[in-house]
Amino acid sequence: MAIGTQQDGDEVMSEINMIPFIDVMLVLLIIFIITVPVIKHAVNIELPQASIEKVQDKPENIRLSVDADGVYYWNDQRIEDVDFAARLEAAAAQDPQPELHIRGDKAVRYERVAQAMATAQRSGVRKIGFITEPAP
Hints:
The chain is an alpha/beta fold. Helix content is 35%, strand content 14%.
């Protein structure tokens, strides 16, 4: 009996079995061969032509501020109540109509802001927005 030699068929295999890896690579190759022609085909669409027409300019927004005393300011210029309705009617007659942005002081009575909104509605202003400050 020889010491240190194995005559049995129970040898440990020290090589990696490459057959499963080759099978996986062949399957991936077939998948890529099938999907590449599908990816290369683009959808034919007709793109719109650019026009040279001038786009109608949007009018500047009207900034209406109401301070703590209830005084109106039209784009940072003080305006009296009697002139306010006439200016709103003139703005409502513009085409396209400007937007009215109302910025009210937090100490002003809501009644003054509501009066400004009602006057704007009677004048025909269709777009009214409020300017606020974000919470800290």
